[in-house]
Structure to design on (358 residues):
DNA sequence: TACCTATATGTGTCAATACACATATACTTA
DNA sequence: TAAGTATATGTGTATTGACACATATAGGTA
């Protein structure tokens, strides 16, 4: 049920279409809660039925019309109530860590390649976070409404840095092995 | 499809029953890949049908009989093949980070309480990792088969430490606010 | 005696998620 | 000209996952 809340969170930022939301999930909130576009479109319909969002069709020529969604007062109330419920513990699902548990039964060369790829991915993600921080939060103290986003970025950076350190150590430890 | 691989990974450690696996998932591999007991029992049946595990019923008096599962050569082969496929990117799903994005529209007092609870949970998890390291890896260099487990622990510690730092900073930043 | 916990294995069912497919148009690139 | 990309909204379906319920026994506790 938390995807609906994540969508409401996005729509407090500004009214958006399903397409906008899908892109937003790919570049922003999706770092912490992933969603695909069919999921988003279906959830938007449910939110409309509950009265938490209202839609408005934007006529476009050539391209398909956009259906833009906006949070209602009831939606804002739902958001507030959700924020008072205890947070679910963070879920980690990581293939790589699972493989590590059976290190003697797997292909070690493949493992090294996978950690190398992971290292690159985490570096890229960190660079992206830095880029977002530089363009959005370059000038001193953030506005009150942006504080949470900055804090989210900072956690992301902490997370990526942790992974980068770990990958480097892991490669150093695995490299000497012959196979 | 990756739960079956996680189970195979566990069974390379030693033969286990579904009940054993469920407990193992709660205290070990489950840090990186969560599973409930009905999921595990169903998956074990599928693994049996594929010939990746064989089962052996242990007759017990009083208590229900245990069905102990053991990896076959085909299972070990499947594990090896799985280890050569590229790893799926780690999935993060975190309610708290989502809430942070709408900081102006949520209950800030509840948020502070939630971060405080999170901090305690991460400290507890870190302590648990330290405990496991102390009892399992106290004596210098680990055996080759245990290296991956130690590395997994180290990543877990890095992760928990990152969260603990972040929570402390976050509370310091949110505390001064009046509401 | 009644309840709780641990051991041990399941079924039934609903919600969440992933992923392929479907449709329509305009613009850019090879 | 053909193919690919971007815009925009969906459907259909299979897999995964969560959670309540079901059953059976032994031992400890209130």
């Amino acid at each position: 049920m938390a995807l609906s809340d994540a969508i409401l969170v996005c729509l407090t930022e500004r009214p958006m279409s399903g397409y906008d939301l899908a892109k937003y999930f790919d570049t922003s909130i999706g770092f912490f809660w992933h969603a695909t576009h069919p999921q988003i479109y279906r959830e938007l319909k449910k939110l409309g039925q509950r009265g938490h969002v209202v839609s408005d069709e934007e006529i476009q020529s050539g391209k398909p019309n956009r259906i833009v969604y906006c949070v209602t007062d009831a939606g804002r109330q739902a958001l507030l109530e959700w924020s008072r419920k205890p947070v679910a513990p963070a879920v980690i699902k990581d293939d790589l860590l699972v493989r590590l548990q059976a290190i003697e039964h797997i292909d070690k060369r493949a493992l090294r390649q996978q950690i190398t790829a992971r290292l690159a991915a985490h570096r890229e993600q960190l660079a992206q976070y830095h880029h977002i921080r530089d363009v959005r939060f370059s000038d001193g103290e953030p506005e009150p409404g942006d504080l949470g986003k900055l804090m989210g970025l900072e956690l992301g950076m902490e997370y990526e840095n942790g992974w980068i350190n770990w990958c480097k150590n892991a490669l150093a430890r695995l490299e000497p092995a012959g196979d």
